[in-house]
């Protein structure tokens, strides 16, 4: 009799255990469904916020980009002007160097002529009687 009662209790407990497992699985499925919907909504909310937060940053970035591009253009223009100035300066320097070399050569030739002239004058003086 005791064994029969225990067997009945064991069967009842096993049945209750199965029912609890089914209930637990149903609750887990429901919780999983709720959590997936929650995650989906949070993802949508975060994406919406990111777009809202990113929009002003994007505008500032675009404005800064335009400003940087204009500054780069100005720097390139200044570089071109500097290159032209260096080129003109180099050309002027070479002209001055050429003129200097020409004057040095002319000076040397004039000194030689002067030297020849002095020598002939001195020779002519020696030929003159005292």
Automatic annotation (TrEMBL):
The keyword Coiled coil applies. Pfam families: SIKE. Keywords: Coiled coil. The keyword Protein transport does not apply. InterPro entries: SIKE. Residues 93-120 form a coiled coil. PANTHER family: SIKE FAMILY MEMBER, SUPPRESSOR OF IKBKE 1. Belongs to the SIKE family. This is Suppressor of IKBKE 1. It comes from Cisticola juncidis.
